[in-house]
Design a protein that fits this description.
The chain has four helices and four strands; from the N terminus they run ααβαβαββ. With 199 residues, it is of the alpha+beta class.
Length: 199
Amino acid sequence: MMTRFLNALALSPLLLWPALPAVAQNSIPSLPAAPPVTAPARPPMAVPATPDTLLPPLPATPDQTGIPTAPVTSLPGSRYPGPVTGPEPARLAAEQSTLVYAPGAEPLPAGTDAVLADIIARLKARPAERLELHAHATGRADRPTEGRRTALLRVRALRDYLVKQGIDPLRLLVFADGSAPDAVPGSPPPDRVDLVIRP
């Protein structure tokens, strides 16, 4: 009997232990509710003023009545020695002449001295005229730039020759173009340089 009482007394704390947290929890007072968080009032955003889209008036056009009008075809005087005035030569060159080259050749072809002499005499007698040099050359099909390179070398050699003869380089307009062999009868030869005189 005594043994049962001691056993019950020993087990009594264990039986009461689950209720202890509840008692301790009920004894803690509840915390007051947190006040509601309110965001501070923002000041209203300032609206920028509408930009002024009106352009200022243009400045007045300066008076240009005292400035003489330069002619469009006026060219500077020659920088190289040589007669630029005097009587015109007895034989004037045609408005267009053609120098025919052998395929792949770059120097001036033989037999062109008379044609070039007429052109040089005309340019010296008429300093307002200009000379256009249009070079054409054929090249290999697998190297499309070869023809244009040959044409450029031809026209540069011709230009240097004319400058050495006293023609102002500012009066010489150079053009180089590669082309394919033209088999059409009656067409201009594909390897050539056209000399065109312009006012």
